Amino acid sequence: HIKGDSNQTNTNSDSEVGPWEEIRWIADPKWGSLYVSYTSVVTGNGVLYYQEAKTVKGIGQWFLIARDAYNGVELWRENIGGFLKYIRNPDYTYCADEKSLYYREESRQISRDSMTGKKLMTYETKIPPEFALVNGSVLVLCSKSTLDAFDKSSGKLLWSQPISIYPAALN
Description:
By secondary structure, this protein is an all-beta fold. Helix content is 0%, strand content 46%.
């Protein structure tokens, strides 16, 4: 509570709150920057993924970054293109499970290994996906006109359903 405990004082008898006994986040960046933009944050199995827009030698670039969520150590970084490649904030095609990150790259959905960043699979769609979710062995992608389900390990299209509007839960 903002005032401590039920008597509205700024002190209480909470024994769990106190000075830090350890520092967990040891990697840079320790705080944000006016010259860097972060978007599309998602976590899975102790890994934090995000996009970083950054100017490198005067050229704007998007980087896909994976960090250990416990201590902030960067696991991998991938240059995924220029600023104008994706102007979607936030990007709802990012999702993760215990082993992989899934995200849109142009008109395809891509999966990458969570620890190495190695590209594992490309899921081809007729229309670029706008929403994605992963559950068990299935990756579901939603575009403006179709709902597609893929076997996430083989990339095989399991089924495709035309839709006339977005499902209510995704709108």
